[in-house]
């Protein structure tokens, strides 16, 4: 029988050179790291050992697998089996199947080196490592939204693919550099490949070459909205804290409306660029639904996010300027940061022990925290509730959408004076203030300010708030018992609990609260 080749967890079908090959999979491969495309017949991009576990040929204990090369398929389904979720993939050039290998060759394999079955290129390893990391100065997760409509036609579609390929290569794709994926816009949008599918320019180029022209109306708006909503999830390979970018290629003009899609993209923190080729002529303008379509779709209509090329011919000189734009981290005005993507609710103790002058110091503290955030209709939002035995919503998240209005509303809060029922107040705020925004794009924070012992249980209501996705910071002054403060605060409790003896000490806590909110924002699934 054939001698088995020992392979790694990450060896893929396309790394093998023979039509039929016996391989030996190692034990304990991390299941979540497998990329597997298809079911039974797997795209050659798939990890061999991943496919073998998915198929039930081996378990995670590893073992012998026979790999059979097969022709490419038009589509590979996504199927969950044996702890591995395979992914769907449209057309791929070659496939393979897996079956149980012959056990008796296992011993021979052990003595071999556990390298991938890819022949060594003899290059110095140092260089290839750097190449793998990619251009670290260009941190971006990019979706190329290509035009696959009848407007562009097959021939220009191929020129468009060449251009996108050149841009992809010049970007310096790599594990620590930019990651890219492609979506084709036509009648219906189709995600061709995701950010996580490839981390080397060579693979991306190959995948772009393989793309088939779909044809149909150019429903760019529909495709842009779909991409903004579905493409940049953590499961699909988007990375935290890295700008999300969609580069829309448009030949002529869209068949549908881009305005709503532009709004959705901005809500999701995506920076939209439009590359328009062969702009509509004066005679054609009558056929365009909305002449201002570019300005409505881009992140900001400041000129930076729109790019024009006269035709698809001779586009090489346009590659570098576009790449420079895509790598300008600080120009990505639509990215989500902790400053523009949070809802902060302040729960303010208005009990009689606080007193009018200390109450003013509390409001000053609230103002100073709120001031740090970019408050707007598509940015961060602030709400305030005052409580004694009763609760009063001073203003909700949707009442004021500019920073000036929020700060003036805080200044105008009147001191209630009364008892202290903090638990009830937390429940009230969770339900009435956070309830209406719980499905929104922002991350939710509650800052509870109190100066004394609550008459009711705080632990239950605080746990319910946290369960509803609200991160709780507790800020205690004077007689507020540390146990209550810790019971209200989110985990880790030490970094979400603050205390000062005097109301004048609140001022020093402002930067810590802001930093805490930003730290939690980055740790969350944004």
TrEMBL record:
TM region(s), chain numbering: none
Entry-linked SMART domains: LCCL, VWA
Record carries keyword Cytoplasm: no
GO cellular component entries: extracellular region
Any one GO biological process: sensory perception of sound
Cited Gene3D superfamilies: LCCL-like domain, von Willebrand factor, type A domain
Region of interest called Disordered, as start-end residue ranges on this chain: 112-132
Family matches, as PANTHER family: COCHLIN (PTHR24020:SF36), COLLAGEN ALPHA (PTHR24020)
Domain LCCL: 3-96
Protein's recorded name: Cochlin
Keywords, in A-Z order: Disulfide bond, Glycoprotein, Repeat, Secreted, Signal
Gene name as annotated: Coch
Localization, UniProt: Secreted
Functional description taken from the UniProt entry: Plays a role in the control of cell shape and motility in the trabecular meshwork.
Source organism, top-level taxon: Eukaryota
Record-annotated VWFA domain positions: 141-326, 343-513
Organism: Grantiella picta
